[in-house]
């Protein structure tokens, strides 16, 4: 039963950070502001998003990568600069920031960033008409319309995944498709189109993102694609100018996110968050205000570089066309970017301020709606009276045509409003953090009580009944009534209520068992354990540290190992080699085919060295699949098309492995284990790009030798008496090896970002979800093998499985508590992104360990007529 509690509790904890730190910013049912009452400087706007183009590639060597655009900039001026995105640096959030002016909350990840969790307003919905071309995945985000006339106002043309990119050097074919469709469209309607105003043309160019992923941004192949795309953009610009001769077209060229050198994005590195922008045409100031940054176009032509937030693009584009910003927008209009009359700018800024105020007023009303709100603190800078005062002040200034004052008040109001919105959105963050901490502490106490119970059961063979005293019962009931009463009266959302109430059932659980000693270990042991946990936490920040931890652990194990034979020497060499891996650069994004093929050789030769028995079907299936993998990689190197049969063979082997490990063809547990290792590492080898396989094979072999020496020391020490400190030691080893397998070949960032090259044998089209699945599979295989080895070969761990398991949860949860307090929603996006991934990875690892331990027991240990507790002697006989 307690395993189920553990799984449910950890899934709930996983959700907690999103409720505590990241609430959805979208408010529904808001009224849009009216259009600006003056004539807009532009009648249409062309928004070009070059997906995945980073600022570095664009500005490289004074724009020498974009020669056509460079000429255009010299002629047309306009504004040039860097637009700063937020994490996660993925396509969906980037486009939403640009087109809706809002930063979607990271909890959208739970919906896979595919479906819109909540509907939101966009610049397209405010416009008279929108024409868009690009990839289906992006266009569909903006294709949800509530209005009846949607079909007339929106023309979307998307290609699906039928444009294959695998092995295709020319990813700009994707962009060519867009350009040709736009050209066709403009030529089809040269008479009607110029008559329309307040129109958006949206061109989504996926070619560069795909090129970046496959070729990596610093290669010649990527440059070739960039040249083609930028030339295409220039041609499209010329075409627009030909069709629309009224000089009333504004252009925005930017990108949704950047890309790292290794061809990935998602995290918060400057290469990922810094994207270029170039805005020119009608309504755009050719030179804004003074800035410290410049870029030299020619010997004597310098262009200033500006910085904006990605979400500022939405109110800017709206203002250029005389439209109000989308109702959910959080961006502030950069007024100096506009080339318009003082009155026009004042009106646009005021409209922006009212739009933001509408969101604040909604949150304020909602807070005031709660019956107990008169007792609670409020945002003092912008109370009801202040809001009304500011509004009338604005009206007066507008009436007196004092546009400077209107602009200034509007900006002050916007600043306060944004702070106020944040204040009310995070209103319950502190109580939630407190409640979650109490839940986690109660959970730790529950685990300790379980351990205590197990220990006494073990020593005295007495069943203890659960005890929940009446007094404690009453106290919990009062708490439950009090908190739920508050939630109902204050009309809190169900998520907030759930996490505020969570401590009560966990506390009830923790109090069920009486505890004799709060510290199950001696003071010294506890201190050492806490130090080890701290060490693991630190290794999340610098992966080199895990090398030190690994060597120290190896030394400790060897102290108890008295044998000094050839195995001893081999192990020493292995430990030293393994300790070097975390010092190497991460393997993600690094492809080395020689190392890759060498890994194949190791996979095949390992069974011969360790005398591993295999069934005929294992040998046959693996031989075919490895040959097939080699063929796939060979094709990939030569950028040739992959036949469908190859993919089919890879997926068949994948299914074969998972079916085959469910059977145990041999009677020796060790033989079965070796077979599972062989099958799993063969599957793993198909997902590698360079030296990962060497590391995992070494780690597994070293672990088997370590377990052998641990086995001899543990059986002599604890044959008869139960030792809790040994349980902690074994569980700490499991966690250490797990994290070592993560960080040995990659760092924290590479766990969350991925390299599409790992799917060379499995996929030919770019499908993020299948790739994500393969990344998770690649990370999990070593963990599964580690758990299998420890729970199969170490008889101590089979006997005290439950104890070890509880210790495992204790250690993981103490680490998770640590990371809960390190989650940040302020500061640089690199810090925020990493802090979220630490907590999430910790929770997921705990869950995975729970599942794998049970799986390994079922697959390898559990005999057919299973008796609940095997004696040590029996196990030794079996193995
Ligand atoms: Zn993208
Ligand atoms: Zn991408």
Structural description of this entry:
Helix 3 packs across helix 10, helix 16 (429-460) runs parallel beside helix 19 (503-512) and helix 32 (801-820) runs antiparallel to helix 33. This protein has a nine-stranded mixed sheet with strand order 4-3-5-1-6-7-2-9-8, sandwiched between helices. Helices cover 59% and strands 7% of the residues. The longest helix has 33 residues, at 829-861. It contains 34 helices and nine strands. Strand 8 and strand 9 form a beta hairpin. Among the domains are: 1-18 and 429-512, no CATH class; 44-340, Alkaline Phosphatase, subunit A; 355-426, no CATH class. The model is unreliable at 865-879 (pLDDT under 50). The chain is globular. With 879 residues, the chain is α/β, with parallel strands linked by helices. The protein binds zinc ion (2 copies). The site of one zinc ion has 7 residues, from helix 4. One zinc ion binds next to helix 4.
- Strands of the biggest beta sheet: in what spatial order? 4-3-5-1-6-7-2-9-8
Instruction: Assign an overall shape.
Output: globular
Let me know the average pLDDT: 84
Bound molecules: zinc ion
The radius of gyration is: 31 Å
Determine the oligomeric state from the structure.
single chain
Write down how many β-strands occur, each being a DSSP E stretch of 2 or more residues: 9
CATH topology of the domain at 44-340: Alkaline Phosphatase, subunit A
CATH architecture descriptor text of the domain at 44-340: 3-Layer(aba) Sandwich
- Assign a percent range to the helix content: 55-70%
Q: What composes the largest sheet? A: 9 strands, mixed
> Could you name the CATH homologous superfamily of the domain at 44-340?
Alkaline Phosphatase, subunit A
What is the tally of helical segments?
A: 34
Uncertain residue ranges? 865-879
Query: How much of the residues is beta strand, in percent?
Result: 5-15%
Give me the secondary-structure category.
alpha/beta
Main location: endoplasmic reticulum
GO molecular function, one term: mannose-ethanolamine phosphotransferase activity
Domain GPI ethanolamine phosphate transferase 1 C-terminal: 419-828
Keywords: Endoplasmic reticulum, Glycoprotein, GPI-anchor biosynthesis, Membrane, Transferase, Transmembrane, Transmembrane helix
